[in-house]
Amino acid sequence: xxxxxxxxxxxxxxxxxxxxxxxxxxxxxxxxxxxxxxxxxxxxxxxxxxxxxxxxxxxxxxxxxxxxxxxxxxxxxxxxxxxxxxxxxxxxxxxxxxxxxxxxxxxxxxxxxxxxxxxxxxxxxxxxxxxxxxxxxxxxxxxxxxxxxxxxxxxxxxxxxxxxxxxxxxxxxxxxxxxxxxxxxxxxxxxxxxxxxxxxxxxxx
Length: 205
What we know:
By secondary structure, the chain is mainly β. It has strands at about 10, 15, 20, 40, 45-50, 55-65, 65-75, 80-90, 95-105, 110-120, 125-135, 140-150, 150-170.
């Protein structure tokens, strides 16, 4: 399971909590615009369907598990954040599962850590999640996997699968705030707030 890291804060009239900045999405074809290209599947009934005008991956299961995954190059001792948008599309599927597994070879062989597992409650509406895990020493690749639990029955929809590598995590230990923007009085200079979470086509509001 995922282990929470301690949060350090700097108090300067308001509380500023350190959080890492993440790079671009490492997943190939994350929104299934190019069918299932780039993905490997476990289970026979994977397809890409149009839901709310957007493509997404769909699997129908009957008392079995099914999953979709990619092997992605990675670096040791880096923080990686995974996410996806998930929805139940019929039947009694009430939970989905997400795995991150770290490997010492670039082809996702010779596992050294994981799978780091999150079990995710489903509903009939699209829901997003984030989980972060640090790659152990010796890591050269990551397998990201999303799917159903064993003995599931029904349909699962998946969209906007994401994996990001942290760029930096300035924890204010040097007293420098040069890489940080700030908000005073609940409003930013541009009048917008960007909440942390998934940036996808069906992000819950």
